[in-house]
Every structure is written in structure tokens, then in C-alpha cells.
Design a protein that fits this description.
Shape: rod-shaped
Helix content: over 70%
Length: 98
């Protein structure tokens, strides 16, 4: 009878050790899943920030483009004024020589 009880005690101890190992493995797997979840959340935040930054760069690019167009327009207007001024100066020179 002692042998049977001893065998049962040993079997229960082995099952307890195995159950503890399973609990430890499940805990480690759970921690790994939690770490993965945190990494995904961090990636999502970084992706959102990158999207915001790309939007800001696009907006600044549009402002620069508009500035370039404004400068181009002003340069064209200045060229027209220069041509008109040259024509007026030529008229003045002709009038002066007459």
C-alpha cells in the first residue's frame, strides 16, 4: 500500500512540475505577445507621425511652388516694365536730339 501511495505522490509531484512548466511557458508566450502588441502600437504611432510629416512637407512644397510662380510673374512684369522704360528713354533721346 505504501508503494501505491508513494507512486501516486510521485505522479502528483511530476504533474505539478509539468503544470508549473506549462504555466511558465504560457506566461512567457503571453509576455512575447504583449511585446509584439506594444511594438505594433509603436509602429502605428511612428507611421502616423511620418504621415503628418509628409503632409507638412507637401504643404511647404506647395508654398514654395507658389512662391516660385510669384517670383516668375514678378520677373515677367519687371521685364515688361524694363522694355517700356527703354522705349520711353529712346523717345526722350530722340526728342532731345531733334
Amino acid at each position: 500500500m505504501d508503494e501505491i501511495v508513494s507512486g501516486v505522490v510521485i505522479a502528483v509531484e511530476e504533474q505539478s512540475i509539468t503544470a508549473n512548466e506549462i504555466v511558465s511557458n504560457v506566461s512567457q508566450a503571453s509576455q512575447g505577445a504583449s511585446d509584439i502588441n506594444q511594438n505594433i502600437a509603436n509602429s502605428s504611432v511612428m507611421t502616423s507621425r511620418m504621415t503628418e510629416n509628409v503632409g507638412a512637407v507637401k504643404a511647404k512644397s506647395m508654398q514654395v511652388k507658389q512662391g516660385v510662380e510669384d517670383v516668375e510673374h514678378a520677373a515677367h512684369d519687371l521685364s515688361d516694365l524694363s522694355t517700356k522704360l527703354s522705349a520711353l528713354v529712346e523717345q526722350f533721346k530722340l526728342s532731345e536730339n531733334s
